[in-house]
Amino acid sequence: MTEWLLDREQDLRLRALRRADIASAAGLAAEAFGDAATGEEVRSMLSLHCDGAGDTPLDRQQALLATRYYVLAQAQALVGLTGLYHPAWIGKGVFGLGWFCVAPALQGRGIGARLLGATLQIAAAQGGRRLFIETAPNLTAALGLYRKLGFQENGRMPDYFGPGSDLVLLSRSLDDVTLEEGFPHGL
User: Fold this and answer.
1) Residue 116 and residue 122: Cα distance in Å, rounded?
2) Could you read off the pLDDT of 90-108 as tens digits, one per residue?
3) Do 184 and 4 form a contact (C-beta atoms < 8 A)?
4) Which backbone phi and psi does 80 adopt, to 5 degrees?
5) Is 120 helix (H, G, I), strand (E, B) or coil?
6) Residue 72 near residue 122 (C-beta atoms within 8 A)
7) Domains along the chain with CATH numbers
8) E strands in 36-103
9) Which strand (E) or helix (H) includes residue 14?
10) pTM of the shown model
């Protein structure tokens, strides 16, 4: 199985999500978002991903919603989750950021920036030209990370998550993203 050693010192390795990872990834999401319901939503969505897309690269999927998820492991424990998706109704080369989180105990150490940077490279390697993010305005740490890595707010949709809880849409070009030496093209 292809994996990418993102940080030798911290032994951070990125690899494609496997069905056996779903429970751990859902638990990680519940912990990171502070909400068991979010963990269950992640479990359901990742199960659908494994049932439909599995290990098929985004550019080879023939689906209404192509998805690809990755986990970040440290000493065999899952400490991060990221993903990309491409709706069939959006232009070629435009990807959305799927569920994205880092274990709360590791937040504030640059791991989220490293994971998002790796996700940008994966999107660029798959022919991406733009990455968008749909998120909530109360996720201030995540919004700060996104802006730090060049994402700009493109608008808001009122009451998307419920009354008084808007959706924030951000995006950035992938034109300036270069693949690191040793980038695993099979990821």
Assistant:
1) 10
2) 888 999 999 999 999 999 9
3) yes
4) -160, 155
5) helix
6) no
7) 3-173 (3.40.630.30)
8) 65-74, 77-87, 94-97, 101-102
9) strand 12-16
10) 0.92
Tokens for 175?
Answer: 């034109």
User: Any idea which residue has 């996700």 for tokens?
Assistant: 119
DSSP state of 185: T
What is the phi/psi pair of residue 36, to 5°? Answer: -65, -35
Distance from C-alpha of 127 to C-alpha of 168, rounded to nearest angstrom? 25
Amino acid 65 reads L
Look up residue 183 and give its amino acid: F
Residues 6+ apart with CB under 8 A from 46: 17, 21, 22, 25, 26, 69, 99
60-92, pLDDT tens digit by residue? 556 666 778 999 999 889 999 999 998 888 888
Tell me how far apart the alpha carbons of residues 141 and 120 are, in angstroms, rounded to a whole number. 19
Higher pLDDT, 91 or 120: 120
**What's the full length of the chain, in residues?**
187
Enter the tokens of residue 63: 């689906």
Which pair of tokens denotes residue 84? 């990309």
